[in-house]
Amino acid sequence: MPTATITVTPHPTMGAEVVDVDLAHLDDDTFKAVLDAWHRYAVLVFPGQRLTEDAQIAFTKRLGRLERLVTKKSAANLGNQAKIGKLANLDKEGNPVPEGSSLWLFLKGNQYWHSDSSFKTVSAKASMLSAWAVPSEGGETEWADMRQAYDALDQATKDRLEGLVAVHSYWYSQSLVGGTDVLSEEDWAALPPVEHPVIRTNEDSGRTSLFIGRHASHVKGMDEGEGRALLEELYEYATQPQWVHRHRWQPGDAVLWDNRSVLHRGRPWPPGDRRVMKRTTVAGEGDNDWMLGEF
Ligand code: OGA
Ligand code: MN
Known about the structure:
By secondary structure, the chain is of the alpha+beta class. It is built from 8 helices and 15 strands. Strand 1 (7-10) and strand 2 (16-19) form a beta hairpin. It is globular and about 50 Å long.
């Protein structure tokens, strides 16, 4: 499809919708147009793509090396499982797991604002989520634009935040929700707390943003309670409705977002309803243990 036909419509608050594009068959020029739009809007909603797992993996790989999710098991022999994560509230028989169960609590963690893999030494660059089964109501995903939130800070606050480093820990964030027994002791041991600057600049867009979210537990070198209070204040401030877009999923929709520039969260849905999503993740720049090899 020639580049000229992709249609990008900005949402009123943040992000954009892209139609007249087939992500499974993108020539280089059209891919470039998608990439430019992604750098500009940070969140791109692609309704009705109905990507297969292989097509989602192939598209996501064009943005960089993929990252495994939170288990370090060797990628060998896992097939697509290492490359695409299934987020489903289902047991082995395909029935919804009960509210309050380990898996349910584990998934509930996604309902608090976060940037994917901010608890890893190299946090994720991009994520793509596609919808396979959607609940009768709820289950939306929301994104908040950390670039607009940063830009709107007064200069004194920008100056105060410059140079601050937050400590991010998956154990911290997930302990607040529960469901920590979904990962093994060994998996948890591979996820020690890491540090990231609170202010970051996106290498692709040049835009500066707040880099915070639920995994950020405190501020390095600051009294723990004081740092936590500051992060909570920023979290509330930065996720105000004027910078948030909510997507109501239809099966087949796909959304690509930039974890360097936005936070996201899922919304609750009736626990008896099935919700099946598939996620691919592009690793941040630089080598890291979670990056998958070339394949
Ligand atoms: C994710 C995530 C939210 C959702 O896939 O990284 O946070 O709505 N998902 O499922
Ligand atoms: Mn996420």
